[in-house]
Give the backbone structure.
Amino acid sequence: MLSKSTVQRILAQAQLKPHRLERYMASNDPDFESKAADIIGLYLNPPQHAAVFYLDEKTAIQALDRLDPVLPLSPGRAERHGFEYYRHGTLSLYAALDVNTGKVEGKTAKRHTSAEFIAFLTQLLSKTRWAKEIHIVLDNLSAHKTKAVEEFLARHPKVRFHFTPTYSSWLNQVELWFAKIQRDVISRGVFTSVADLARKLRKYIEAYAKSAKPFRWTYTDPQKRIRINEITGTAYLVLSAWATASPEHFTAYVRNPQASNLQAQMPGNPGYDDATIHALIAYFQTFSSPEQSQEKP
């Protein structure tokens, strides 16, 4: 059995941190690259005399009223909110980020419907009469593709939609702004009613416009992409798959810490050498052994 320090040393040398977990979402859209290039192109080189908006909805925002008083920030102590609250209701927030100015047009609504979406588009049109073209980046929500929306686009040919690829909301810059309003207003807020929530959201949008700046994307490595056929399992899943596919073969290696040539025997090996595989097996055995998983009915 490998010692704790040996496992730590081997994993450190291999730059593996099996105790950590990060999540990602890979798009399965066959037209991902062309759609992404279209959206990024609008950001990098927007058409002249055109308005470009990144649009989305933040739904089911709760108007929570804290039952206990908020304890303010003080030296050595963070701001504290009581655990109990009263929920007055919810509303939705429509927001469109102007890629050129960084300002946001917003609208609150009781319900998240195609009619409310069209009403917000109409509001955008009234604010951008100067534009010869209006380009809107948005996701694939069904409310964005109804017959009523198609009729609206037919009546306003200068409005053009650019849909993000599936599972790729990170390409929509308004998501960055939603994260800001979540931190600044919603998470820390105390709202005495739904109307109070709507008022504070609108007040934040007005205040944000006074110092708004465009978000600046940077590209560290344009060639680094996630492709479906290159995704391998995590260390635990790779070991579990090995245990399930060849339980006797896997068990023989688990019970023999001196076994060699594991890197060739492991199905789907991401590139671990023998020492790393032994260290990973020893690590996962401490709380949930892949060997045990294959014994479950």
The two ends are 28 Å apart (CA to CA). The CA atoms of residues 1 and 40 lie 52 Å apart. The first helix runs from residue 4 to 13. The chain has two domains: 4-24+228-293, 32-71+78-209.
